[in-house]
Amino acid sequence: MWGIVWIVLVRSKCFFLYFCCGVYGLIRPVVVVVDVVNDFVSGVFGGERVGSIIAPLQCLVAAAHCLRVPVVFCNDAHYRHDVEVVRKWGCHAMQGTFGAKIVDEVVPDLSSDFVVETHTYSGFYESGLDLLLRGLYDGLGAKTVVLCGLQTHICVRHTAADAFFRGYYIVIACDGTEANTEQQHRRGLKYMENMYNAEILTVDEIIKKITCN
User: How confident is the model over 108-129, as pLDDT tens digits?
Assistant: First the structure.
């Protein structure tokens, strides 16, 4: 009899956690801001479209601070010999330069936020990001990665892939990510939704879910 009761309790708890994460709140969320640096906003890879994410990002980061949700800024800080510099894109967001600096509009709060330097598309690749996330929430670790930043179909998508491979639940801020064309942006969102089961939400929707925690 007690075995049956235990099974019912465990199943009820699992259902409760699933219900809370999927319908109401997000379990142990962390906001990861990808490549919102000068070279991607106003510099060599910038453009009018990408500037549209600044206001939503300001709202999301401010809400995370108010609700004590961790915020991590993952930024390209390239060496001259990085593979994407040498073989693909040329010099951009080079370590220590203005182009690799986070834009002033969303500058991190260094008393609470984290900054992780990256050298390739994924925020996780040999960066220490995963170790950081697993140490949050008093060692329980983050469970939900809320991704925003630039660009939807490249660095955000590759970061989402590595988050998925590591077992994180993924949320994408659709108005907090952008690409140089609408087609690139839409394709990036659809790919992450289909391949990584990412939940695509607006910043306002994400803030409501975080508030429910």
Answer: 999 999 999 999 999 999 999 9
Both tokens of residue 6? 């235990």
For 88, how many CA atoms within 13 A lie in the half-sphere containing its CB?
9
Cα 136 to Cα 30, 109, 112, 147, distances in angstroms:
9, 17, 12, 17
* Nearest one of 134, 133, 196 to 169, comparing CA atoms: 196
Look up residue 1 and give its two tokens.
């009899």
178: domain range? 27-211
CB-based contact 132:163 (threshold 8 Å): no
CA–CA distance, 83 with 210 (Å, rounded to integer): 37
Contact in structure between 142 and 26 (CB atoms under 8 Å): no
How many structural domains are present in the chain? Answer: 1
d(CA 146, CA 55) in angstroms, rounded, equals 17
Report if residue 67 sits inside a domain: yes
Cα–Cα distance between 31 and 39 in angstroms, integer?
21
pTM of the model: 0.88
Please indicate, yes or no, if residue 153 is contained in any of the structural domains.
yes
